[in-house]
Specification:
Number of strands: 20
Strand content: 25-35%
CATH topology of the largest domain: Rossmann fold
Radius of gyration: 22 Å
Oligomer: single chain
Order of helices and strands: EHEEEEEHEEEHHEEEEHEHEHEHEHEHEE
Distance between the termini: 61 Å
Number of helices: 10
Shape: globular
Amino acid sequence: MTENCKIILKPGKEDSFRRFHPWVFSGAIQRIQGEPAEGDIITVEDWQGNFIGIAHYQIGSIAARILSFTPVEIDTDFYRQRLLAAYRMRQSLGLENGNRNNTYRLVHGEGDNLPGLIIDIYGKTAVMQAHSPGMHFARHSLAEALKQVMGDAIESIYYKSETTLPYKADLDHENGYLLGKSSDDTAIENGLKFHVDWLHGQKTGFFIDQRENRALLERYSHGRAVLNMFCYTGGFSFYAMRGGARLVHSVDSSAKAIDLTCRNVELNFPGDTRHKAFAEDAFKYLDTMGDDYDLIILDPPAFAKHRRVLNNALQGYRKLNAKAFEKIRPGGILFTFSCSQVVSKENFRLAVFTAAQQSGRNVRILHQLVQPADHPINIYHPEGEYLKGLVLYVE
């Protein structure tokens, strides 16, 4: 802890912390005692000097992320205890399942009381990602604690935070291995194999949060013509193929993503001619395609990462879904998602409903989808609920 450095809150701003919300916004601060640097551990107090919590300090609208609401030492043992709690929860979920599944999220930031930290497990490799300077500076302690907790269950830890840390923080955030090194980039999810590009891919290399939604799609795929938009690594595509889809087309604007999709399909269904992939802009593809599909997946990247672009994002969701409603065959099923944290369930649903109304189609909700259990939501931090989706039947 930086000696004598404190955040003093304005009167009345302590209420959210009595409800254990972990974020200290800059507008709630009356003054800062001392001169903390980015990532320092700092004490948070109310205006009367009462202890609130121990936090990582950073410059920005979120000025601190509270690690503990009790006065404790933030050290390797602290991180070990938090990681152990996260690991035990995943074990209780049965996510480690030998040859059936070796891929899951071990730490989901605030949902696991480790704000600013993501850790995904791919077989024997853990991929760690920091979203705050404090977690970046703690990366070596975290790696040591993680190895203590998981033992032989992991052999390598890769640190991947170049694109997630605040760019103004001027941090030395080069990606690289903190422990060991792995050339095995193949992981298993629900019995299906896929290549993980944790060196250069998006996020930590794969979108683990769609695991259960991909399994649901498999149940609806038999005999259908499937279009997987924004396919990235092709997860929905090879689940659809295992489900007995008549044909599967994968579309992504990135040629690298298309290459990875094709490799993953070939890994599971070598020589299968049902699959074709196209490196093309999603909106252009939707504009020019016919009514060939009766199952469409819309899983775009986050249209809004900040509230100031929320309206543009909602317009994008309306436009995207309207085109799908226009083109999908009668009796078709649409899986549609938003992974934007700033887009609420209500806003997303309204955008999709507006698109359905514009199309004039009869549409029914079959499922309302969320993130899986290994992406838990801290009950005191509702902002952690970011993934939302709908499965719709379109007459």
